Amino acid sequence: MKESVRKLGLIGAGLWAITEDKVNDLVKELIDKGDISKEEGKKAIQDMLEERKKQKLDLEKKISEKIQESILKTDVFAKKDMHELESRIETLEDEIQRIKNKEKVFFK
Fold first, then answer.
1. What predicted TM-score, i.e. pTM, was given to this entire model?
2. 60 phi and psi, to 5 degrees?
3. Coiled-coil stretches, from where to where (predicted)?
C-alpha cells in the first residue's frame, strides 16, 4: 500500500510530463493489485488528468511571464513600439512638408 501511495504521489508531482496512457497503466496496476477499487481508479484518472491540465496551463503561464520579463530587460523593441515610431515619423514628415510648402509661398 505504501508503494501505491508513493506512486500516486510521484504521478501528482510530475503529472504534466506523463501521458494519459501512462496514467491509465499505473492506475490499472493499482486496481489489479487490489490497492484501489475500479471506482477509485476512475476518479483517480479523472483527477490526475485535470491536475495535469492545470499544471500544463500553469507552466505555460510561467514560461510566458519569464519570456516577457526577459524581453523587457533586454530593451528589445516590440511591434507596438515600432508602429508608434513609424506613426511619429510620418507625423514629422508631414510637418516638414507643411513647413516647406509655407516657405515656398512666403519666398515667391
1. 0.46
2. -60, -40
3. 42-102
